[in-house]
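Q: Got one fold?
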Amino acid sequence: MGPPTLVDRGFQVAYTGAYRMMRLYWRLRHPVTNGALVALWNRGEVLLVRNSYVPYYCLPGGYLRRGESPRDAAVRELVEEVGVSARPEQLVLALEERHDWEGKDDHVTLFSLDVEERPKVTVDHREVIDAAWFPPDKALALNLFPPLRHMLTARHP
């Protein structure tokens, strides 16, 4: 994919605005949320993504849809965010965590997927603006989503 277009930039602005509105809603309502993320590993490096609307690195992932399992959501989000396919049974549970995050009671399930060959990764330049591979020590030096930091620290103390 080429560089972001003007339309992509418009989507980034819309995502940022929507995210700010959601944060306000979360502070007022304190909802319970459920998310699933995938740590994709190759040659000792993990794939991290940056979303257009937050200042930290994270893993491909997102919220569960109604009736969707964390494993199925993780597989869906992996395809949607970075264009990588996996089967649910390939995912290994790496971390389950519940924490207060941005005003919500956030339940997060992180899965790990080790791949022998580095897959071709694509981003939409709208929600996801970057995806790159990092060794754990370099990843831990970045601004990370807290459960991601906890998983990396547990895997690579």
Remarks:
- Strands lie at 32-42, 45-51, 57-58, 61-63, 92-101, 104-114, 128-134.
- The helical segments are 6-29, 70-82, 136-140, 146-155.
- Residues 25 and 103 are 9 Å apart (CA to CA).
- The chain has a mean pLDDT of 95.
